[in-house]
Amino acid sequence: MWQQFLKDYFNYTKKERSGILTLLILILVLTLAPLFFSFFVKEKKFNYSKFKNEIAQLKIDSTSKNGSEFSRENGYNENFNTGKKFQPVQADYFLFDPNTISVNDWIRLGIREKTARTIRKYISKGGKFYKPEDIKKIWGLSPADVTRLLPHIRIKDVVKEYTQPAKSNSQKNEFKQVTKTYQLVDINLGDADDYIVLPGIGSKLSKRIIAFRDQLGGFYSIDQVAETYFLPDSTFQKIKPYLVLNDEPLKKININKATIDEMKLHPYINYNLANAIFQYRNQHGNFISVDDIKKIMMVTDDLYHKVFPYLTIK
Hints:
flat, mainly alpha, 314 residues, DNA polymerase, domain 1, 12 helices
């Protein structure tokens, strides 16, 4: 019985035996191949001494001149690990008083000409730096510039904005704050530099006022400045005495030609009003006068008086 079983399952033809033998030889070769691999492939050798010399040279370079080649004092951006390539600031350092140096002096210190002129404009309008850290408030001056310039600032005595009046009968020293005066700003002609020196107005608010004015097409009333996005009413009341309005032409929308998309870009005209004007024009023809928009039901008297200065029929 066992002989028959072995005969049935282990009896191979000559071709099958050759195949099995070939397969066994192949398995043996693949098994032993890793043992002989090192004899045919040479391991690549690294020059570790050269690598160590390069590392040492980098350490020497990085610690040269006050301990860091990338320090702010040498004019490099402090975030040199971000992977970006930074260029050193070309600066000629010297002790300076930010209240007195010229535009060219600021440029020598590595400050952009536009920023330097902004600083001088601030000084010419009565602004002052009372301590070195005050330069952090300069619009356009980066934190890296502030850090590298602070050690070189020497501010001379600046007259404080307080005066001491004559002693009263009670022989007490009383101080009162001197009211600071600002240059008047034409709300339709002033730029961001003009607005930024006003009390409570920083770089963001000055840009928002300009952007809102451009969207409107110009101001026809000083009170419109108060509508600027995120401008507190308390701040507007502070700057209102220094705002003036000259007779400047407004940018107007031709309601006989403008599309819905063009009209709805105006802050006073939403999509519904723009669509109503467009549909009325299609149904009744061109407007004979701007007053005709009063015939549109949704146009109230308040809305009409608000948007009227920005509309035209030709």
